[in-house]
Amino acid sequence: MNFFGIGTPEIILILVLALIVVGPQRLPELAAQLARLVRQARRYAGQVSSQLRQELGDLTQDYEDLRQELHQLREELRQQARPLQAELHAARADLETARESVEKATAKEEQPQETAKPPSHGKASTP
Prior knowledge:
rod-shaped
């Protein structure tokens, strides 16, 4: 038997000491008071435990509600982002096509300038 971490020999020793200190006439009254105190402590502990379970249940429900809302919000954001991502991809492809066109046009303009010789003015330079 173990009561609040106290074994049977310790309980017997406490009872013997209580009998010696309190006396045999007051021991039954003290035992009744102790029993009432233990019952009140158990009732209080039961109430506290019940209240904690209820609060924990409420907190758990609030957590689950928030978690569900967050999940729904995340899904809504993903759905709204898909068209934006498609538009961004299309815009990126358009920009890449435009860049390539500009590069080709620039390359074509630069080719004739490189092959053309500067016009001479008819005078030859003498050394």
